[in-house]
Structures are given as structure tokens and as C-alpha cells.
Amino acid sequence: MSGPLLYACAGLGLLIIGSWALVLRAHLIRKVLAINVMGSGAFLLLVGAGAMGTGPVDPVPQAMVITGIVVAISATALALALVLRIAYVTGKPALPEDRERDLMDEEGE
After folding, report:
1. Residue 101 DSSP class
2. Which range of residues forms the domain containing residue 66?
3. Long-range contact list for 18-27, CB < 8 A, 24+ apart?
4. What is the Cα–Cα distance from 58 to 63, expressed in whole angstroms?
5. Nearest CA-CA partner of 47 in 13, 6, 1, 15
6. Which of 2, 38, 45, 54 has a Cα at 20 to 30 A from 92?
7. How many Å apart are CA 55 and CA 74, to the nearest integer?
8. Mean pLDDT of each 10-residue bin along the chain, 109 residues long
């Protein structure tokens, strides 16, 4: 297995894990972490796609990944500030509809 293909497969795996956690977890900090995992998977896919081929490595996907990392850091900071505000106002770091879903899941066990 070549390096670029390994990066692409790892990126696809991270995208799947992140989307699974984003859908199934109610805690907002875990949702922010899931979005970060999905972003890392997308970055790995871009790096893997940019390195595939017989010629030299394409610098455009690498530049996009560097820019994406900077944007992801700022988006994570904003999301965590919003989670803190929601936790301060509601008393729990979860949205009301997600808390109801968690209660239903606990009752079913």
C-alpha cells in the first residue's frame, strides 16, 4: 500500500468515525471534537489526493490544508465559547432535544 493511499484510507476512516460521533453523541464538547476529527480526516484526504500520481506533489492541496487548519482552530475556539455559554445558561453542555433523546435511551436500557 502506497503512502498517499494510506493517507486517503486513514482520512476516510476519520471522516466515518467523526460523523458517527457527531450523530450519536449528545454532549456538545464531544460534538465539537467529532467535527475536529472529521476535519482532520478531510485534511488527510486532501493530502493523499494531492500526492497521488507519478509526477511531483501538488502544492495546492497542501496550501489548502494549512489554511484549513487555521480556520479549524478558530472555528473550534468559537464553538467552545458557544458551548460554554450554553452550559452557563442551561446548566448542562447539551441541547434540550439531545438531553431528551439521552433520557429515552437510558430508559430503554
Report:
1. H
2. 3-108
3. 26/94, 26/95, 26/98, 26/99, 26/101, 26/102, 27/93, 27/94
4. 9
5. 6
6. 38
7. 34
8. 85 94 87 94 90 81 92 96 91 74 54
Looking at the structure of the chain, the number of domains it has is 1
Q: What is the pTM of this model?
A: 0.80
* Cβ–Cβ < 8 Å for 39, 10: no
Could you give the CA distance from residue 96 to residue 32 in angstroms, rounded to a whole number?
17
Amino acid at residue number 105: D
Residue type, 64: M
- The rounded distance, in Å, linking the Cα atoms of 11 and 109 is 34
- Cell numbers 464553538 correspond to 79
Contact call for residues 105 and 37 (beta carbons, < 8 A): no
Q: What is the CATH number of the domain that holds 15?
A: 1.10.287.3510
Whole-number Å distance between alpha carbons of 97 and 108: 17
The confidence score (pLDDT) of residue 18 equals 94
